[in-house]
Design goal:
Length: 322
């Protein structure tokens, strides 16, 4: 169902509704990556072809039994490639379709159900220790890469947010240092922009690095490529894929011994902040952490880090009964 080529007269009402949902995603300024790599393929390659094969052409025909057949089929027979899918993958697909159905319901469409989430195994999220992060920073070959490692570790920004930082995003507010992070909604000011506190030492290093950037750089992006573009002769902004490659290389140089990627720093930050310090005090609660991570609520934090929160509940119960 490619919008540019599809004949809308041959589309079912359900397929036209999905097209409108994708248009709404763009209108809400969701990231192109989310639309093109998550919502579009899961709708157009999985859910809508299945509905057409089942003779389902209207959203009103999708009740709970229909949705259960679809998700159950993914678990039993697999998806587009007919390979068996894990419950975690099916749950991810289910969230995407539920987002579409929730939007349709808000548009007063006759939505009669939502995809049930399969029972998921307890997740063990690998994290980097503070010592491993220090080793990676030392292994980085230049100040730019050292700063990227430290910024990922001490702010929990997403890699797309990191490469979107500008020289004006290092802020001083009420004698505290912050990064103005532009969230998933894009680089323009939005409700998802947030101030993330940073240690004074990191702020000094970032400001010093910003002043040291090439004077003829035609972009105000904070992190640039190390070499001029051979075609234009200009320094280009660093890309997310460039950061990912650098992190993999630095992790190997630091002998970390397992796969390291930018989002792992985000998990590591959250885990470190939710753990208790030597005095038994939590460094940050989930409400505070939500603001740092840029989440709308604590649902994702409570689900992802339930093992940490559950241990605190157990400790509280034992103290109360002792």
């Amino acid at each position: 169902m490619n919008e540019g080529a599809a004949d809308s007269t041959k589309m079912t009402p359900l397929e036209r509704l999905a097209r409108d949902f994708l248009a709404n995603c763009r209108a809400r300024n969701l990231s192109a990556r989310t639309i093109e790599q998550v919502y579009r393929p899961r709708l157009e390659n999985l859910f809508l072809p299945w509905c057409r094969a089942e003779g389902i052409t209207e959203v009103g025909e999708i009740d709970q039994r229909v949705l259960d057949r679809w998700s159950g089929g993914l678990l039993e027979r697999g998806g587009e490639r007919k390979a068996k899918l894990s419950p975690v993958t099916v749950a991810s697909y289910a969230r995407s379709i539920n987002s579409f159905l929730a939007w349709a319901k808000a548009e007063k469409e006759d939505v009669k159900g939502k995809v049930a989430m399969p029972k998921l195994p307890e997740r063990h999220i690998p994290v980097l220790s503070r010592d491993e992060i220090d080793r990676m920073e030392k292994a980085a070959g230049n100040e730019r890469d050292k700063l990227i490692v430290r910024t990922l570790a001490d702010t929990a920004v997403r890699v797309e947010e990191l490469v979107g930082l500008t020289t004006e995003d290092i802020k001083d507010e009420d004698r505290r240092d912050y990064l103005l992070v532009h969230g998933k909604a894009g680089a323009r000011v939005s409700t998802r922009d947030r101030l993330v506190p940073i240690p004074p030492a990191l702020a000094r290093r970032l400001r010093r690095y910003a002043r040291s950037r090439p004077h003829d750089a035609r972009t105000n992006r904070l992190f640039l490529g190390l070499r001029r573009d051979m075609r234009t002769g200009e320094y280009q902004p660093l890309t997310a894929s460039g950061v990912e490659q650098m992190i993999r290389f630095v992790a190997q140089e630091a002998n970390i011994g397992r796969r390291v990627y930018p989002h792992l720093f985000r998990h590591s930050y959250a885990t470190f902040m939710l753990q208790r310090d030597k005095e038994g005090r939590r460094r940050m609660d989930s409400t505070e952490l939500r603001k740092i991570l840029g989440h709308k609520n604590t649902v994702m934090i409570d689900r992802t880090y339930a093992h940490l929160l559950d241990s605190d509940i157990a400790d509280s119960a034992i103290r109360a009964l002792s």
